[in-house]
Structure formats: structure tokens, C-alpha cells
What does this fold into?
Amino acid sequence: MDQSLEELRAQRELIRKHLEWIDQQLAAAETGKPSERTSETTSPSETPEAPKASPVKTAPPAEATEGTAAPEGSKVFVNDDPERLHAPAPVDLTRAKIGCLALFFLSSFLFLFLLFGLPYLMD
It folds into this structure.
């Protein structure tokens, strides 16, 4: 339990740092100036790349009432390339291909053995 609690606290801290970075990027975009990074939030090697996004108009939800509906011109940014976020690593693809080939050859061998080899052993 202690380990999972520590992991959750570490994840919360990482999310807090990421939200600070997002706030800096938003402030920089609003003012038109590049943001100055502080050493405690991110270092140059840790700076995440911002995904390419395109504005998409959203429709208010069906169950929303008049007071909670989104403004008419509100926009939500959607990632243009969702495959990039969930793409498996090349090593995983290679291991999967090898596993599929091994399974194919083993199942073929078993089929041929049951078809031709087993009847000769039963005699």
C-alpha cells in the first residue's frame, strides 16, 4: 500500500509540473512572447513536445441546460494524429512478428503431424 501511495504522489507531482508548463505555454501564446522556462519546472531535455492540434467547434451536450451550455464560438483542440500517441514501439512490433511466425509454424507442424504422423503411429 505504501508503494502505490508513493507512486500516486509522484504522479500527482508530475501532473502538477505539466500543468505549470501548460500554463506557461498559454501565457506565452496570449502575450506573443516565448516563455521563460524556470529550472525547477522543466529542463531542456524534459520539455515535452506540444502535439499538433486543430481547432474544432463543439456542439453543446444534449443534456446541458441553458445556463451550462458552451458559448456558440467555443473551440476545442483535437490532436491531429492520435496514432502517434498510441503507436507501439518498433521492438514490440518485431517481437510480435516473431511470435506470430513461430505460432504459425508450430500450428502448421502440429496439423501435419496429426494428419500424417499420428495415423502411422496408431498402426
The chain is about 55% helix and 10% strand.
